[in-house]
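Translate sequence into structure tokens.
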Amino acid sequence: MSYKLILFDLDETLYDGNTGLWSAIKENINQYMIQKLHIPAADVRALREELFNQYGTTMRGLAETRNLDKIDYLKFVHDIPIDEFLAPDPELRTLLEKYPVRKVIFTNADASHAERVMRTLKVRDLFDDKIVDIMTIDPLCKPMPEAFEIARQKTGLLPAGEIVFIDDSLANVLSAHQLGYQVIWLNKKNQPVENPEFPVIQNIYQLEQCLPLPNGNKSC
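Result follows.
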């Protein structure tokens, strides 16, 4: 496996899904829909799921179906004291330091949120200055193939086969795989999948099991 760039998803990929951070973000999404868009509270959960499944993110679905101020939305939903959920992660830092290739965050969140997460985890300096965030690919989002093409353009136009993409969303991983990326699925919920065509791990700390180090020969 040869590669020149690793694209990392952010939320629930760089950190464990049990921290509660993503649950807090989802609750802020609910509250935005109720408070700002005046959607009945009883309808929010089902509508959010419907929009996510149809459009890829709740934000994109709301933008398509309602008069949404995206900047206001992103500011509201990410207004969370991240240090109450995350802490510096020396194990993650040690792992990432073993891969001296370009590492870029590719997220359906915004760059400000990504910055805060990386800085709280104490790994910001290990990633490229460039963040491919939801506004970079707007009005698209993962898992849309066009969003991956924008990410490829913004990170130097490497052939897809020279890029490793890591995400906890199976839909995102499948999309990237079909486009020719090398992919690793972070299957944190241990979902049953028969004969996957790509490496599968349960958390980011297992990365070495699937992604060879530059001077190593480990592989799945």
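Note: Residues 108 and 134 are 5 Å apart (CA to CA).
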